[in-house]
Specification:
The protein is mainly α. Helix content is about 60%, strand content about 5%. The chain has a three-stranded mixed β-sheet with strand order 1-4-5. Strand 4 and strand 5 form a beta hairpin. The protein is globular, with a radius of gyration of 21 Å.
């Protein structure tokens, strides 16, 4: 039984079932201008306030500046969720308002808005589909693919799955380097969104260097990106990389099952839920990306169907660090230790 979807209806849902959950989520897809504006105020206000406090703390001691930078990294995660909602067109009713705020938040999160929106749409359309891996997801190999891979590819995969790389070096590289270049398959608007974002990031960075000085700015910005990137990648990782996650091939893949069984309900303490913009209700988000983050919990509590999804807690989520390969026979993620068992069985 899928641990994230205990008692959840079978992937082979009929049209009446689908119509039922679509009716439930419809009212939560309606954006709220007061809630959206309050999120903008408390997120941007907190972020600006922390940068000001860091400016005041620099002449006193870096021992004051560094903790403030860590806290700013947490706020940046929340800002990225606003950026994320704008990309789905869910934060405001107005598409123009979503695109404008998405672009602004993209400057602060070092992420080109239109380019990211295009790649993220592919992620939503293919999440949990074994035949469509590779865009907007975490590199995941099946057991068979790993066994048939070259030594170099196996080494690269193990390296990519190392926590220090996955949650430390990779996020910093992603936000500071990789997102400065468009994908080869990107269309003109997506490519130009990368170029213009690079110009805007350089302009903002130049202004902050003028205010803070070069080395203080680099230190502060690096810590902020390290914390926000590491936390953000961890959230994304644990939302799709848990033991009994849903993966299927071809015609067996089902959208509803991929949402309710292939995306976790990450039950976090309230303070962490605030910093992460409710994105722990990821099963609801994948069921309907049009629901803004400030309505996700309300939707989750609206119907027993959603509450039947077994939560992953902060403690139990640590198990995700030990599972790396999809076993198509057992239909679950397994660790590298599983390979030793297979070798012993074939002796």
């Amino acid at each position: 039984m899928n641990a994230n979807a205990e008692s959840v209806p079978s992937p082979n849902r009929n049209s009446a079932d689908t119509a039922a959950w679509k009716e439930i989520v419809r009212k939560y897809q309606e954006p709220s201008l007061p809630r959206a504006l309050w999120q903008v105020v408390n997120t941007f206000g907190a972020y600006a306030g922390l940068w000001y406090l860091m400016y005041l703390s620099l002449p006193i001691s870096y021992w004051l500046t560094v903790p403030l930078a860590i806290l700013a990294g947490g706020i940046l995660v929340r800002m990225f969720i606003i950026f994320h909602d704008c990309g789905h067109g869910s934060f405001f009713k107005s598409r123009a308002a979503n695109d404008f705020l998405g672009y602004i938040t993209g400057v602060f999160t070092f992420t080109p808005y239109y380019h990211w929106r295009w790649e993220h749409a592919i992620h939503h359309a293919s999440s949990g589909h074994l035949d469509k891996r590779g865009t907007g997801d975490v590199w995941t190999m099946t057991v068979q693919e790993y066994l048939e891979a070259s030594r170099w590819k196996k080494f690269a995969y193990r390296l990519a799955r190392n926590p220090l790389i996955l949650f430390g070096i990779a996020p910093v590289t992603l936000f500071l380097v990789i997102q400065r270049f468009p994908a080869l398959k990107a269309d003109k608007r997506e490519r130009y969104s990368v170029y213009w974002m690079n110009v805007m990031i350089l302009a903002v960075a130049s202004g902050l260097v003028w205010i803070f000085g070069l080395w203080p700015y680099l230190l502060i910005q690096f810590i902020v990106i390290l914390v926000a990137g590491g936390a953000g990648v961890w959230m994304f990782y644990v939302q799709h990389q848990f033991e009994n996650v849903y993966w299927e091939r071809g015609e067996n893949w089902d959208y509803t099952a991929a949402a309710l069984q292939g995306s976790s309900f990450y039950k976090l303490p309230r303070i962490l839920q605030w910093f992460t913009g409710n994105i722990g209700f990821h099963h609801i988000h994948h069921l309907s990306p049009r629901i803004p983050n400030y309505n996700l919990e309300r939707c989750h509590r609206a119907d027993p169907l959603f509450q039947q999804v077994k939560p992953i807690t902060l403690f139990s989520s640590l198990k995700s660090l030990t599972i790396h390969l999809w076993d198509e026979q057992q239909k679950k993620l397994v660790g590298f230790g599983h390979l030793r068992k297979l070798r012993q069985q074939h002796k």
